[in-house]
Amino acid sequence: MEGNNHIVLLYDSQKYAYLIIARYLLNGLKKGESCIFFTSDEPEAIEERLSAEGIDVNSYRQENTLRIHHIDRSYANRLDAPSSLKRIREEATIGMKPPYRFIGRTITDTGSKEGMKLGLVIERTGHEHFYDFDCSQMCYYDISEIEQSQRNEWIKGLLKNHHHVVYASEPDRAVAFETMLLEDEE
């Protein structure tokens, strides 16, 4: 799953999700990639979680190979794709060298129909133009927080708009596969 891939991480427990997230970032950092974690959470909280998973955040930040890029919550749910995706990418990578490895999501409201509709528009647009970005990207979603009345449809939409899926239910039970394996044959 390395290289120019769009990956979705689905999880039930944030604890297990951060094991996968940290490994994804460490793989990139060890390869000399510039890694950017974009979030609407406080950057300090993300730094603490990554440090707890064994990433020397301060060292990588000083080397300018790791950045926690904050996206304002009110802004995050009003994005117009694809120009916003490009703008966020440009802002987040100022002064960094390619190749880039991103993790995060721009949509924070996954608990409402409107939020999930917007999220899927952003995911679809980003996926359609993904190779223009020339990067690796992991998006992550807590399954328990996804709007419930149409949860199955939302998850199908997420799978359709990514190259790979990782499902982390427990650390020793995470599975990963190409989403094209889920496509119906015509």
Entry keywords:
186 residues, alpha/beta, Rossmann fold, seven-stranded mixed sheet, 8 helices, globular
Furnish the topology, listing elements before pairings.
Elements: E1 6-11, H1 14-30, E2 34-39, H2 43-52, H3 57-62, E3 66-70, H4 73-76, H5 83-92, E4 100-104, H6 113-128, H7 130-133, E5 135-142, H8 151-160, E6 164-168, E7 175-178
Parallel strand pairs: 1-5, 1-6, 2-3, 2-4, 4-5
Antiparallel strand pairs: 6-7
Describe this protein's structure.
This protein has 186 residues and is α/β, with parallel strands linked by helices. It has one domain (6-182): P-loop containing nucleotide triphosphate hydrolases (Rossmann fold), CATH 3.40.50.300. The protein has 8 helices and 7 strands; from the N terminus they run βαβααβααβααβαββ. Strands 3-2-4-5-1-6-7 form a 7-stranded mixed sheet. A hairpin with a 6-residue loop joins strand 6 (164-168) and strand 7. Helix 6 runs parallel beside helix 8.
